[in-house]
Specification:
globular, 7 strands, alpha+beta, 6 helices, seven-stranded mixed beta sheet, Aminopeptidase, 229 residues, binds coenzyme A
């Protein structure tokens, strides 16, 4: 791949973003436990209906970027960021901060249609292993910075496009924005993202490794919390 372009997402990207992202998480031996009663294809089809709604939720503070192959226009990866409250608009003129990562609004009737479609989705994760995620949630609450920061909430590169610099380019875009705003970045990482965050200068501030083998997992379910810089 010669180059990667990072650009704004819009609601029409929803199905392609689902097709990019769900296979990435499907490869995670713990994450997939929640959906093992479904096929990958079925789950992608359901998330394709939710993605447009998620792109419109909390437009003030949420920012979304896709990595695109400029030759084919194909989506290679996706990142979702959350700005801290009161940092989403320029105080002087009320324009949005980081507008090139804000999803364009749609007409009210289109938005209603999108929200209605999302309501039809089958969302029935297997929650047998919830006691493990409850511990992760408690730790996350404890270590989340109390000062204003940007959160990296979602990062996914389709397995077909991994190890070519796509994830690095998406994270770099958020780092550039955080530097511009003078803010830290906080991320709850999965095991697969750990080398990338370390390489890019994130500091590991907490981790929790739990045994998920009794639920059918690999035995090592890791949650890692990083701050940049
Ligand atoms: C984690 C994830 C986002 C990384 O995406 P990616 O596009 O593969 O990331 P990059 O290509 O930028 O970097 C991955 C590795 O490829 C290497 N690489 C980058 N470009 C390369 C190239 N042209 N040739 C060879 N290797 C390359 C990088 O050095 C990096 O090595 P490292 O693992 O030692 O850091 C991706 O694996 C993923 O989506 N995983 C599943 C979901 C997930 O875990 N998301 C993170 C949640 S926090």
């Amino acid at each position: 791949m010669t180059s990667i372009v990072i650009s704004q997402c819009s609601v029409i990207d929803g199905p392609a973003l689902a097709a990019n992202s769900i296979p990435a998480f499907w490869a995670d031996p713990h994450w997939v436990l929640a959906w093992r009663h479904r096929t990958l294809e079925y789950h992608i089809s359901q998330i394709a209906l939710r993605f447009p709604r998620n792109l419109l939720n909390n437009r003030d503070t949420m920012r979304h970027q896709k990595a695109v192959d400029p030759e084919t226009g194909r989506i290679l990866g996706y990142a979702r960021w959350c700005l801290p409250p009161s940092y989403e608009i320029n105080a002087d003129d009320g324009t949005p901060i980081w507008p090139e990562a804000q999803v364009p609004a749609v007409e009210a009737d289109k938005e209603a249609e999108i929200r209605q479609a999302a309501e039809t989705v089958v969302w029935d994760p297997n929650n047998d292993a919830d006691e493990l995620s409850d511990r992760v949630t408690a730790l996350k609450k404890e270590v989340t910075p109390k000062t204003p920061h940007i959160s990296l909430e979602y990062l996914a590169v389709n397995p077909d496009n991994q190890r070519r610099g796509v994830g690095t380019a998406l994270v770099k875009s958020g780092i550039d924005q955080a530097n511009k705003m003078g803010l830290e970045i906080f991320v709850h990482a999965f095991q697969e993202g750990v080398p990338l965050y370390k390489r890019m200068g994130f500091r590991l501030i907490a981790e929790l490794i739990q045994d998920d083998s009794k639920y059918g997992g690999s035995g090592e379910y890791g949650a890692y919390f990083f701050i940049y810089p």
